[in-house]
TrEMBL record:
GO terms for biological process: anaerobic respiration. GO terms for molecular function: electron transfer activity; flavin adenine dinucleotide binding; succinate dehydrogenase (quinone) activity; succinate dehydrogenase activity. Its cofactor is FAD. It comes from Geobacter sulfurreducens (strain ATCC 51573 / DSM 12127 / PCA). Pfam families: FAD_binding_2 (PF00890), Succ_DH_flav_C (PF02910). Belongs to the FAD-dependent oxidoreductase 2 family. FRD/SDH subfamily. This is succinate dehydrogenase. Keywords: Cell membrane, Electron transport, FAD, Flavoprotein, Membrane, Oxidoreductase, Transport. It comes from the Bacteria. It catalyses: a quinone + succinate = fumarate + a quinol. Residues 502-636 form the Fumarate reductase/succinate dehydrogenase flavoprotein-like C-terminal domain.
Length: 637
């Protein structure tokens, strides 16, 4: 099947405005007749639930945390992009659009990326009005800093806590609607199935994580805002509760999964310090504004960093990418760091690290300026490593961070299952094969505040509200299926913990489908993953029962989904016989080691249809057309 993204035609500068006018509207008095289920309350979900509630719809919002304030969006550090051009350094909506298309290695939809760039300025105005404390310069104007993949300063920030502050802004808007009664909040609940009636998404089945109760909520549309899946690698910068479960359950009910092999490895993370570690810690990309990445020039040079003179240091990003230097895009900076470590010039335990050095910036600007810009990041680094990064360089190494792949959606953010909308990191649409820094927060808030309020109305205006009730046979069947799955976990009573299986899977995925992949490594993973999955269903140990607070049971469900999803992700990586962005097949690289695309054969989004566990999924393609940015070799030199 050739998929249609339903992108509007005509001059790209007018597409979103024309599309908004062409879409159907729901009369203000009729909005209260419709119920919308929003799953996930991070930036995308929180903004969507607040906006839809403000418009007058009945909204039910769900999160597995004890409060929407604890959504993983809180962990974002460095900033959010917008094309305000406050520094007057040459930025524009077109330049933000161009940088994002190029940053994604020409594997994103033009129309979606243009819309993202266009509404980016509205996001800043919205957040300032909410009281988000963005950094300001001496005169009181909003400040900007640079991020990778751009030669302008367009990133708005709140020290190293930008995600937290933006989430509190969205949460305040959400809390207002909860008080007004338009939004009903269900914390400590996890979506375990999608209810599809006559081909349309009409509800979700959830587990109350405190009592263990399984129940169905029905509505007129479902909006998934459940983040990414990089915990498939076990160790990542994501919170340990982040999973593929909600998206995967939707996939098993018919939603296509697009580009699952596109994952982002972040170059600026604290290196792993032991085998029993359960997650990795992100250090914001913004640090590369003032920090310089380097390793010793000589292999095996174990001197303390302060004893290595400048002439014996290799500032490898500045050497390889003089135009962008330390602010090269994440996929390129990550591979460059791995390259140095593979050449036996890495630093720290096991040689798996590079230095991020602030000495020259401190000398030029003063420690107080660096402290003001990044103080909480330096404090966090010291708490974890017991090293003062004002005195000695930080040690960093790449780590899994973000999912560019996700459920396939059209221009309206609706999946191929009518009534199922997918926002933020959970969809595939705007980042292509690599996300530029400070774009995740932009996408989440753009989708939640400025896209879904328009596009969902176009769907709702065409249906009759309240058609499906909670006693519908499909709802009863969904509850039954979920209960059977949970009973199965508890009844196995094997010898290995869920974490042991997750760690085993993560090691296979990182070594074979991580920062670099090959035909051989993907085939090896496809051989081993089913073996791990088979053993899991025979030998996993889940104590307790389903009718209680049981985190072992929660984790078992999430790892079971990862064990199925990992196979699709690897299959997609094997199928895409090219390198692009974060998808790096070692067989396909330029003479200088950069990713080598194959536009003739792979200039499309790969959307996979579920055909059963262990069965070959069916591939559907959405061709990508580039009419406003010409396909070109992606260079940051």
């Amino acid at each position: 099947m050739i998929l249609d993204g339903k992108c509007p035609t005509g001059p790209i500068e007018k597409t979103w405005d024309k599309h908004r006018f062409d879409m159907k509207l729901v009369n203000p008095a009729n909005k209260r007749k419709y119920k919308i289920l929003v799953v996930g309350t991070g930036l995308a979900g929180g903004a969507a639930a607040a906006s839809l509630g403000e418009l007058g719809y009945n909204v039910e919002a769900f999160c597995y945390q004890d409060s929407p304030r604890r959504a993983h969006s809180i962990a974002a550090q460095g900033g959010i992009n917008a094309a305000k051009n406050y520094p007057n350094d040459g930025d524009s909506i077109y330049r933000l659009f161009y940088d994002t298309i190029k940053g994604g290695d020409f594997r994103a939809r033009e129309a979606d990326v243009w819309r993202l760039a266009q509404v980016s300025n509205n996001i800043i105005d919205q957040c300032v009005a909410q009281g988000v404390p963005f950094a300001r310069d001496y005169a009181g104007y909003l400040d900007n800093r640079s991020f990778g993949g751009a030669q302008v300063s367009r990133t708005f920030y709140a020290r190293g806590q930008t995600g937290q502050q933006l989430l509190l802004g969205a949460y305040s808007a959400l809390a207002r609607q909860i008080k007004a009664g338009t939004v009903k909040m269900f914390p400590r609940t996890e979506m375990l199935d999608l209810v599809v009636v006559d081909g349309e998404a009409k509800g979700i089945t959830i587990r109350d994580l405190v009592t263990g109760e399984i129940r169905t909520h029905v509505g007129d549309a479902v909006v998934l805002c459940t983040g990414g899946y990089v915990n498939v690698f076990y160790l990542s910068t994501n919170a340990m509760g982040c999973s593929v479960t909600a998206a995967w359950k939707a996939h098993k009910k018919g939603a296509f999964f697009a580009n699952p092999c596109y994952t982002q490895i972040h170059p600026t993370c604290i290196p792993q310090h032991g085998d029993k570690q359960s997650k990795l810690t992100l250090m914001s990309e913004s640090l590369r504004n003032d920090g310089r990445c380097w390793v010793p020039k000589k292999q095996g040079d174990n001197r303390a960093p302060g004893q290595i003179p400048d002439e014996d240091r290799d500032y490898y990003l500045e050497r390889k990418y003089p135009s962008f230097g330390n602010l090269a895009p994440r996929d390129i900076a990550s591979r460059a760091a791995k390259e140095q470590c593979d050449d036996n010039r890495g630093v720290g335990p096991g040689g798996r690290g590079v230095y991020l050095d602030f000495a020259s910036s401190i000398q030029r600007l003063g420690e107080s300026t660096i402290r003001e810009r990044y103080g909480n990041l330096f404090e966090m680094y010291e708490k974890i490593t017991d090293e003062n990064a004002y005195k000695v360089p930080m040690r960093i190494y790449p780590a899994p961070h973000y999912s560019m792949g996700g459920l396939w959606v059209d221009y309206n953010c609706m999946s191929n299952v009518p009534g199922l909308f997918v926002l933020g990191e959970a969809n595939f649409s705007v980042h292509g094969a690599n996300r530029l820094g400070a774009s995740a927060l932009m996408q989440g808030l753009a989708d939640g505040y400025f896209v879904i309020p328009y596009t969902i109305a176009d769907y709702l205006a065409r249906i009759t509200p309240g058609k499906v009730k909670a006693d519908h046979p499909e709802c009863k069947k969904s509850v039954e299926d979920v209960n059977n799955d949970l009973k199965k976990f508890v009844s196995i009573n094997g010898k290995k913990t869920v974490t042991e299986f997750h760690r085993e899977l993560g090691k296979i995925m990182w070594n074979n489908v991580g920062m670099a992949r090959s035909e051989e490594s993907c085939k090896e993973a496809l051989k081993v993953i089913p073996q791990i999955r088979e053993e899991f269903w025979k030998n996993v140990k889940v104590s307790g029962s389903g009718a209680e607070f049981n985190q072992q049971l929660e984790n078992a469900g999430r790892v079971a989904d990862f064990l199925e999803f990992a196979e699709l992700m690897t299959l997609d990586a094997l199928h895409r016989n090219e390198s692009c962005g974060g998808h790096f097949r070692v067989e396909h690289q330029m003479p200088d080691g950069e990713a080598k695309r194959d536009d003739e054969n792979y200039c499309y989004a790969a959307a996979w249809e579920f055909k059963g566990v262990g069965k070959e999924p069916e591939l559907h393609k959405e061709p990508l057309k580039f009419e406003n940015v010409h396909l070109a070799i992606r260079s940051y030199k």
